[in-house]
Write a structure and sequence with these properties.
By secondary structure, the protein is α+β, with helices and mostly antiparallel strands. The protein has eleven helices and twelve strands. It is globular and about 55 Å long.
């Protein structure tokens, strides 16, 4: 009987309701004063992602321990049915937009859109809008939508101002930013986005699995590198020395990237760095070659290339060697 209730719970979470057919344009979540945008998408038609999902499901079958989403699904469904059920949740889009606050700190808003699993969305939202003892958090209304002020929301860097609009979860730094995001999603705020960030953004290949651009303002590039991978950033800093490491960052006026999931063990990435001129680009290229030696020590960087461009430097590489991590992932999703 206990397993039966688990099955009912899982099916209640996974059966899609009215799905949102079109993901919102990532620029919807931006402002003219934004200095960075990061976009990640997972789509059911993507062969690389499907292979990654199949590896995760297969790997979870062999794992023991506390009940996980994978272990409950495997009790009732074939591997093919599990894959189809999880794919029904897609497409998924994750967008982060950064800006610099009045005190110089990097502030960010995150928007997550999940097209399927509407029942799951509601359960998540209900859990996020109440404290540990079930007491609802303070709420405000804007354009008929709820803005939830979670504990600690007064700290802008915590992103604890929550809203859900048209299947998109908004995690904002301040209530004002939440109101702006709601207006944009509802089509109430239609001011075109202008400035160097959005000019660079328009040049990206937006059919990729991940893409983005950052303007290097107020040390934003170094802050983002720490956020993406603090461990590897610190290793490169130690290799180059703090002075040369920070000099490399200063040479970059902006950086843009595109990435594709090729398989369960490989992601291809291209990064373009814009500099003030050719001398700066050549200096940056030398520093990037040294940084590459550090990052490649564990053999997880393949097919590296570096080329000079009219506006700076372009590098490309493959991130490999995470098959085992993928195969263990679903076994960690507890229910």
């Amino acid at each position: 009987m206990k397993s039966f209730f688990k099955l009912v719970l899982v099916l209640g979470l996974l059966l899609p309701g009215r799905a949102q057919e079109i993901l919102p344009d990532p620029s919807t979540f931006g402002r003219s004063d934004s200095l960075a945008i990061f976009v990640v998408r997972a789509r059911s038609a993507d062969n690389g992602f499907r292979q990654m999902l199949a590896t995760a499901i297969n790997g979870a079958q062999a794992q023991k321990g506390a009940p996980s989403l994978a272990s409950v699904l495997s009790s009732f469904l074939s591997l093919r049915s599990q894959e189809e059920m999880l794919l029904a949740a897609l497409p998924l889009q994750w967008v982060r937009v950064d800006s610099v606050g009045p005190d110089g700190r990097l502030l960010s808003n995150v928007a997550i859109t999940l097209a399927g699993w509407r029942g799951f969305q509601t359960l998540i939202y209900n859990a996020l809008t109440a404290g540990p003892e079930g007491k609802p958090y303070e709420k405000r209304l804007h354009q008929g939508e709820e803005i939830v002020l979670r504990d600690g929301w007064q700290s802008p860097g915590a992103r604890l101002v929550l809203a859900r609009v048209k299947g998109t979860f908004l995690n904002c730094s301040t209530p004002d930013q939440a109101r702006y995001q709601i207006d944009r999603l509802l089509g109430k705020e239609k001011t075109p986005l202008q400035g160097p960030l959005w000019q660079a953004y328009s040049q990206l290949a937006q059919d990729k699995d991940a893409f983005g651009v950052i303007l290097n303002r107020s040390g934003s590039l170094l802050k983002v590198l720490d956020w993406v991978n603090r461990t590897d950033t610190q290793r490169v800093r130690e290799k180059l020395g703090t002075e040369r490491f920070e000099r490399a960052a200063e040479l970059v006026e902006s950086a843009s990237w595109e990435a594709d999931v090729v398989s369960d063990d490989r992601i291809d990435i291209e990064v373009r760095f814009a500099t003030a001129g050719r001398p700066q680009a050549e200096e940056l290229a030398l520093l990037l070659e040294e940084a590459r030696e550090v990052l490649d020590q564990e053999g997880r960087m393949g097919d590296f290339y570096l080329a000079m461009t009219p506006g700076g430097v372009k590098i490309g590489f493959a991130m490999v060697g995470f098959h085992d991590l993928v195969s263990r992932y679903l076994g960690t999703v507890r229910i």
